[in-house]
Amino acid sequence: MARPGGRSARVQQAVHAAVRELDTEVGRSALTIPLIAARAGVTPSTIYRRWGDIQELLSDVAVEHLRPDTGPEDLGDLTSDMRAWAEQFVEEMASEVGRAYIRDALLGDPESNNASQCSAYAADAIDVILGRAGARGETAPDVETVLDAVVAPIMYRILFRPSPLDAAYARRLVDGCLK
Amino acid sequence: MARPGGRSARVQQAVHAAVRELDTEVGRSALTIPLIAARAGVTPSTIYRRWGDIQELLSDVAVEHLRPDTGPEDLGDLTSDMRAWAEQFVEEMASEVGRAYIRDALLGDPESNNASQCSAYAADAIDVILGRAGARGETAPDVETVLDAVVAPIMYRILFRPSPLDAAYARRLVDGCLK
């Protein structure tokens, strides 16, 4: 099971896996570092040394979950690509699990490194879509504009404003940005 | 010093004041509920009963801080009013103190009531500005559109994306929304 990166990467992998398993088995509120350490086969002090506290560990696990598994789909034109990406983004982020991961990512992250990483995942996907559009000769806005017009409203509403988020809302944001 | 609302309101006022004073004197990381209780002249159990834990208390104090002191200025036209409001909003929220309050408000708030309250403060101010514009006969977007186009990008960048936020950025968002 060794991965490139040696012991440090193996410890991370085992601890993350233990958090995911125990989260399902006993629930978030019952998670403790001794419990996680026992499941991962490491000492509690290994976890404390590396992560400081349980919130920082949960933040790291959350960012891993929020990392997209695949790149954005190529549907042949900018509007279709951006709509499909935004619809999927809303579906994942606004789900109960997505909301919990976003909160975890922000909470245990006083330096905002994990929050920046979440934003970088979105920016990278959008960059791929806009790069493809450019290669097709389509006119496209820049990444920061799409982050402001599409990603920011979705994340703002998830965190601050109780509102139903659906595919139609995602499409409306995309169409407003590309018009 | 009694306020309408009786004992409950007096306790809240004393505890909030104690948090603000101690935050300045000893710093955030040294705050404890027994310390706050002693300063406020209440028992620790009064605080635990009402707020549950220190993060919930800090979240309530943060929302109090984020409440605007005054309504938005009337400068005679929609663009000037929205620009002035957005510039001030960026200045307050993106300051070090503002960022800390936003984090506090989100962190100790599993039910998102305090986060909703923050969003309601912004929505109320925007509503006043748009209402005035309507009374002048100006064409104006609706509140939700301004939240998406102006407030959301500012809050998203504060939380997720290290980027310098300044008055020029606020004006650009407003002009993009009103064009």
UniProtKB/TrEMBL annotation, chains A, B:
Which intervals of the chain form a coiled coil? none
Q: Which residues form the HTH tetR-type domain?
A: 9-69
Task: Give the Gene3D superfamilies listed for this entry.
Answer: Homeodomain-like, Tetracycline Repressor, domain 2
Residues that span the membrane, as ranges: none
The GO molecular function terms of this record are: DNA-binding transcription factor activity; transcription cis-regulatory region binding
Q: Where is the signal peptide?
A: none
- The UniProt annotation gives the DNA-binding region as 32-51
Protein keywords? DNA-binding, Transcription, Transcription regulation
Stated name of the protein? TetR/AcrR family transcriptional regulator
* Species this protein is from: Streptomyces inhibens
